[in-house]
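Journal club prep — side note

Before the paper discussion, L.F. wants everyone to see what a predicted structure for a comparable chain looks like in token form. Sequence:
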Amino acid sequence: MAERSVSFGRHRLAMFMVSTALVLVMTGATGGTTGARAQDAAQKPAAAQRATTARSISIPGQSLDAALKAFTRQSGWQVGYVTALVAGRSSQPVAGETDPLAALRTLLAGSGLDIRVTGARTVSLVAASSTDAAGVDADGSTVLEEITVTSSGGGVKLGTDSAGDTGTTVMDSTQVGIRADGSGDANSFLRGLPNVQYQNDTNDEAGVDSQAILNTKPQELSISGGRTYENNFILNGIGINTVTGTEEPYDQGNQGELSDANNRYDADRIYGLHSQTLFVPTEFVESATVIDSNASARYGSFQGGVVEYKLKSPATDRLRATASVEYESDALVEYNLATKDGLNPNNVKEPEFYKKKKAISVSGPITDNIAVIGQYSVTDAWTNKAKDYIYGDEDVESESKNEFYRLQANAETDFGTFKLEGLHTDYSQDFESASYRDLEIDTATQSYAGKLEHSYDFEDFSLGGIALSNVSLTSKLTASKSDALNLGGDDTVRNWQSTFFRTISGVTKNVFTSTMLDDWCRVDPSSTTTTSCREGGMGSERGQGQERYTWSQDLAGDVWNGTFRTGYEFGFTEAHRWRAKDYVNYTYRVAASYTSGPNLWQNGNGVKTFTCNTTEECYAEQFAATKAVYKAYDLTAQIMQANSYLELDQTFDWLNIRPGIRLDYDDYQGNLNIAPRLVATVTPIEDFSISAGYNRYYDAANLAYAVRDQQPRIITYIRTPSSTGVVGNFTTTPTQTYYSLDASDLKTPYTDEFTAAINFVDPLTEGDWRLRYMHRSSRDQYASSTPTSTSYVLTNNAEGSYDSFTAEYAKQLPTAAWNPADNSVLSASITWADNNVSADSYFVDEDDLEDRISYKGMSYTKAGFNAITGNMDIPLRAQVGLSGSFFEERLNLGVSANYNFAYDGVAETGDTEDIDGIQHDIWDDKAFAAVLTVDLSGSYKVAEVDEHGLTLNFKVANVFNEMGNATTKSGQPWVIGRTLWVGASAEF
């Protein structure tokens, strides 16, 4: 294409202003499409040209669709096209030793289709327009209509068109679906990828309970040594990260989510917090990009990794619809007893449950240039559990519902492409405690996000004597709102005494049994300890949320010997945390618990009564001796942030360099963070390259501390009866104190990364290989130190490191020898990783004396010992994935296997010992066994008419019913092994 040198005149300035302001959104859009120029392979980077290695290709003349499938099998290339584009067309025969691109041109001769090269081994097909219809440019080249591209087969791509993306993996919807666990959670496909950790072999409370079954939120993961809340998740260009924090500093002994195994609830916590605000369903994913190293400068706000989901685009050819339903229940799973001794002393039965998934998508054009798509999915889950014996024999039923809504409209106009999109997640999950009469904590997530995007392709021009081509400008305005809610019903909880045991003359016996609780609290005849019966709630409403607004522009194009990319973003976030009403917790005492006083328990002569000189929680049998008050509050915090980046990607014969720089600033901490990025790649011979990189990543600007700062601390009131047994009012009023969590004067945590990679195509199988080494050093990490009675002092004293070696392989297998096979894809990887961090939470206290560990006679804090215990690490892991379609794509099968090699680690023994007067949990060496898990998925199209069809689907997770190394306790002794999902889908 000839260079066109023009001045940046008034009409160009006008177009830039139109894009910047995002005016003329879709009004007046009467047609026309943005032109896209056909490009020959000679116009592509050298990497694409090197992919055209000559090989033997033999394809007879036949239907074009069948010929293209044969071409992908024999060449290893991916060809993207719309099915309707090739319908009714025939191919030309191809035979002999030739390069794939030349073979494809021969195959398409006379078909009326042209080739657009999109990568080293990827092309898409477009319809060649006539000169009159498409128009002729000044240099005589024809402008072609751009066609929506769909893949002709499932694929795994190691890297992108940029040689510097050695830490990037791209998977299409087929591969995402195969690797996902069947729950509908898109994050679950990440489990087998290198540098992704999600398992904890040291967990001795791995038993499934009702809340684990009901939880259908996305899986939390660690990527490249980062914490689970340090990743950057992007959905269709919208950041979906929680900037208000998922960690709590309150009650360190009760971290985590609600569980049937733990009846200690903290009214200061917000349960159900998640690192993502929108929960992405697998069914709607078009492709997923995972970046675990060598991230482009356009990505920031993470210390772990980047996960970018792209959802399906609106159909432009005709109205299309899909619907699916899937089902799982306790009848379709295999339960395993996983206690250390293999016993079930409490005779706990296997949990009963079901999960149902439904999804529907409708898409199509509404005018010649406007297309829309609407999508909805819902996952319902149900289970039950038994109440503690003292509350009766009835089971408690609990439910959860996970709904996702999406609506998008695309408009192709003479002013560029406009996209308007809305997304919504509505999640709710019931929790009712088995240890309380009626305590309920319903967790909910309600999130909304909207995007208005405009993209415009400029004609080639020169700027200051520098020739620029294929320049595109993308402008984007986003708005989002997300709330995590705890709705508990009652704002008062009462802890009654039901029985009281006392040792008299060396004999322990029950000296008190409540009569005022007879209608709902019964005595457990097997109990020989003092017990309580509890009733009430955990507060009618408390929550945490955020509102975010961003404006960004990205400019990209070709310059010199490669490409350039630059952009900026301004953002505003307001965080909100609140408790709607005061919450009160009463704890009662009975006369038998006192040992002196004329009217109290004395000399074993029986239970006496109290005289109430108050109306506040006092009864003749027992009274509230303590009152804990959690005051209502309403906290807000705001942050303004700005970032910009510049990146070049240039190829000089055998050398490719990608230098970049990123600048981030926010007005909360006031730090200007400069993050350099650099990757250099040498290609001494064809299909072989060596890369090295250095990158710096800064933690996301967040309000986790600001929104918790000055939250009221608990106020505890205490009273005792008089010597005559008279109970009066609570008279002492403690001073109200507040949590102090200020990080505004700290440095921003960051990670320095060094990488090395070798990419090559092996001559034996012609598969793609990628060998990588990564080292990360984390500095200035957040931690807490020396908390007083009123504050946690946050510091930059934590640090960490992460090292990994990875070998990866991907190949589209040749299947021409087996006629029923259409295509098959093989991918595999093996990863060794070592992760060390000084604190796994920014609220962990390095000097905490309440939670200590003893290992080989030495005393450690939990934070200090965390580097030894694992941090979700499995040192050596391997993964294999194989997928294929058969019988003209009627049958699709996929299998993925994950293998954890055996290793030596440490684990909690369950014993304790006293060291210098402090109780310690004893940990010791443990050999962890190798674990192999295999997942199988498949679908079969049982009916097909034209482009309509009915398909049956199944997913078997953990085919061989592997239990792994994690163990359970007697309260929840069961772990779920093999799991079967069954379902059906229809296309219209």
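L.F.'s comment for the group: The first strand starts at residue 36 and ends at 37. Keep this in mind when we get to the figures.
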